[in-house]
Amino acid sequence: MSAASEAHVPPWLLELFPALDEPTDPTAYEERVGRMVYGGGLPESWVRGGLADLQGGDWQDRVLLFSDRYAQALASNCWELGDLFPPDEIKAPQPQLRGLGWAIIDALEAGGRIAGVVVSQIVFIDGKGKRTAITKPGQARTLLPTAIGLC
Q1: Which strands make up the sheet holding 131-135, listed edge to edge?
Q2: How many Å apart are CA 98 and CA 105, to the nearest integer?
Q3: pLDDT in tens, 6-21
Q4: With contact defined as beta carbons under 8 Å apart, do 1 and 56 qualify?
Q5: What are the strands, taking DSSP E only, across the chain?
Q6: For residues 57 and 1, is the Cβ–Cβ distance under 8 A?
Q7: Contact 114, 126 (CB under 8 A)
Q8: CA dist., res. 146 & res. 96, Å (int)
Q9: Distance CA 109, CA 120 (A)
Q10: Domain boundaries in the chain?
Q11: Cβ neighbours for 148, distance < 8 A, ≥ 6 positions apart
């Protein structure tokens, strides 16, 4: 992880990243998944959906911090990591920073906040007070999780 961002990263998250020259094996991956889910409280679907593959540093720190703060609320409303960050981008060494998640992260970093989350939409307010609602790709606007609270 970059030194500049280490001050803002939760301590449990710092322990998850091996030195980049260390080989990774399935056991280490599963241990990291377990620590992120059970030690850090992140949704398992988000961790296995790409968070466990991140090594930290620059843009990856931004995704991890966003997930640490909002993933549980988003997952409980049927949002998955791939709905916000394209899976091919999460694994790219130098992503194009596209996808709905980056619009939200940019607004939050500019002093904004998430105002509400429902199954089909996330409403956020940027640092200047502008309210934006984004709709989950491929889903009609709805307020309740399908099957009475089940995704």
Answers
A1: 113-117, 121-125, 131-135
A2: 11
A3: 446 566 565 655 544 4
A4: yes
A5: 113-117, 121-125, 131-135
A6: yes
A7: no
A8: 33
A9: 23
A10: 3-149
A11: none
